[in-house]
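hey
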């Protein structure tokens, strides 16, 4: 993959974040609690993308941004799953998990992967946890007796997006610091694929914010 193609893919992935924002402008008043939480995650992602791009264009290391972003992102994702999986896990489980993850992220930054390094340890652990949440949610759906129209269920789209994104990027997150040093053909290919998966996730976010959950059958 050429560096130009990689940059185009990342630019498309960043610009596409405007789609869920535009949808939110027109539909925010009818959002349910879940869609509002997703909107918070989208806003955070947009802000991080803007700051990251500014630093990148100024030739400043933007990796410190992701050390803080990963923690906040994880807490927002946990907040999304907390009510959706309240019949599977106790609320104390999510609080305990959030505290442990935050402490782990801080220790990793202080002693293992500095702010100037990609925090692959933390992103890998987060990926594993979110994949576990996603599979748990689908398991909970299968156990439900009542039928629900999944295409109009925001959580179905959010969960599917998370599962695709984190499972696709798990190896990339883990291997980034150990396998690739600098810009190489292999790193461009993998980070290009990461941009493509980002695009898919954003599309799923947009659908989740667009659908009307009131159309679900009970």
């Amino acid at each position: 993959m050429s560096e130009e193609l990689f940059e185009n893919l990342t630019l498309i992935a960043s610009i596409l974040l405007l789609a869920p924002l535009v949808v939110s402008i027109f539909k925010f008043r009818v959002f349910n609690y879940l869609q509002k939480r997703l909107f918070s995650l989208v806003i955070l992602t947009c802000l991080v993308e803007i700051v990251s791009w500014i630093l990148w264009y100024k030739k400043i290391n933007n990796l410190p941004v992701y050390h803080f972003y990963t923690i906040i992102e994880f807490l927002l994702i946990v907040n999304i799953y907390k009510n959706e999986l309240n019949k599977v896990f106790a609320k104390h489980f999510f609080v305990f998990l959030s505290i442990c993850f935050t402490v782990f992220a801080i220790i990793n930054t202080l002693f293992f992967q500095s702010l100037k390094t990609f925090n692959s340890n933390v992103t890998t652990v987060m990926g594993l946890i979110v994949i576990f949440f996603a599979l748990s949610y689908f398991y909970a759906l299968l156990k439900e007796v009542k039928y629900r129209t999944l295409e109009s269920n925001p959580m179905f789209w959010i969960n599917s997006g998370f599962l695709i994104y984190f499972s696709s990027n798990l190896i990339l997150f883990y291997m980034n610091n150990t396998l690739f040093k600098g810009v190489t053909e292999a790193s461009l290919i993998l980070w290009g694929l990461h941009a493509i998966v980002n695009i898919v996730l954003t599309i799923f976010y947009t659908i989740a914010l667009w659908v009307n959950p009131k159309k679900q059958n009970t």
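The mean pLDDT is 88. The chain has one domain: 3-215.
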